[in-house]
Amino acid sequence: MKIYGFFRRPIPLVAFDPLRILFIVNSVASSVTARRRVVIHKALSADHDVTLAETSRRGHATRLAQSAAGNNYDLVVVLGGDGTLNEAANGLAGTDTALATLPGGSTNVFARILGLPDDSVDAVGVLLEAIDRDSFQRIGLGSVEGRYFLFHCGVGFDAAVVEQVEKRGPWKRWAGHPLFIYAATDTWLRRVKRSRPPLRIVGPEGNELTTGFLTIVMNANPYTFLGNRPFDIVPDLTLADPLAVVTLQRLDLRTIGPVAGAALTGRDVASRRGIDLRTDVHSVVVEADPPAPYQVDGDHLGSSKRLRFTWTPDHLNLLIP
Fold first, then answer.
1. Are residue 118 and residue 163 in the same domain, yes or no?
2. pTM of structure
3. FRET pair for 67, CA 20 to 30 Å: which of 110, 263, 280, 316?
4. Confidence at 23, pLDDT banded by 50, 70, 90
């Protein structure tokens, strides 16, 4: 048996050529430590040719991933949060270089969607076994105005919450979910106008589909996790399916309470009052008056009056645990 840090992995029975791997680390992510970085780097390097790169600014992971694809790396492994992973995915979309994730943020939605352990050291053992099995698969990606997303893009209320969290960036590493709860409460009480729905959802033929206060365009389910509980909005949605578009038509406790309760307990969300749910969506437009904030995979990107969403199948090579 070979020993990698704190776990064991059997020697593969079939010989394989070592992969060229770029290991991208966001050292300021919530659960990334120097010790974890060293242990994971050693584990990956035992059988593969690994180059370590640390991000230093927003957007850096995209450029690092683009460079890896241009230099014919086989795999980019990201240790960081969902935002760093999203940047790397945008650098690799449409190329043959594969992407793998290790949980390093506060929530790690995409890593948990894939079923990886919460501990990044345990997770690297799972990834190494997936490499041995040659477990690579091309998945579809959603995009909004040219920016790809792995699991969702939120427009309206949830993006306003993310914006408030990012304004308190230094607290995010330590406060985690309590900070999101505080930001959601503050946004609900002080920053939401409920006089009329500001969002208009428009289909590919130019027809109005619905209006609302919050729209989530999903490439995978669940939407997020609250502690250990998945927030399941579209339980049947997989990475092989086109997009799902969920719009909250009303923003009051009589609507949000039952919807949140259903999502957290695995009951049907689509039948709840004030919800418009559409699946098998290849393109859609969200119009906003006034301009609405939007976030992609948990990163606030600004505000816009018009956002075009599209789905591109087989657009990213992903290492599947």
1. no
2. 0.89
3. 110
4. very high
